[in-house]
Design a protein that fits this description.
The chain has 125 residues and is an alpha/beta fold. 43% of the residues lie in helices and 19% in strands. The protein has a 5-stranded parallel β-sheet, with helices on both faces. Helix 2 packs parallel to helix 3. The longest helix is centred in the first third of the chain and has 13 residues, at 12-24. It is globular.
């Protein structure tokens, strides 16, 4: 599995920051601004990890997560959210293969650790 990451985030400033940090750490990074674009980029880029905002316009992170899992049941997806990671929707997604839900704000160290840890795992088939 390559060290490639797709970042899906509707806040352009955060998207740019995440992309810059991950590229400085040696990751190949693709970006998308909403869930629909994220699904499209996932099919084109085939990243080893998707880091996705949970609350976005057009299609939220959870909707995009389920669509990505239909494309590739082994996809590694982490959702970052300003809301509680213990919501019913978050817990249901975890039961359906979401790796983790992380509350914002996401610091530089936490982002790099997340990328290194979850871009290298193989999800059970």
């Amino acid at each position: 599995m390559s060290k490639s990451i797709l970042v899906v985030e509707d806040d352009q400033d955060l998207l740019n920051i995440y992309q810059e940090i991950l590229e400085m750490e040696g990751f190949q990074v693709a970006v998308a601004k909403d869930g629909v674009e994220g699904i499209q980029k996932f099919t084109e880029f085939h990243p080893s990890l998707v880091i996705m905002d949970g609350d976005m316009p057009v299609l939220d992170g959870y909707g995009a997560f389920y669509a990505i899992k239909k494309i590739d049941k082994n996809a590694n997806v982490v959702i970052i959210t300003g809301f509680s990671e213990f919501t019913d929707i978050a817990q249901a997604a975890i039961k359906n293969g979401l790796i983790k839900v992380i509350s914002k704000p996401l610091g530089v160290k936490q982002l790099v650790e997340l990328a290194n840890k979850y871009s290298e795992i193989e999800v059970e088939k």
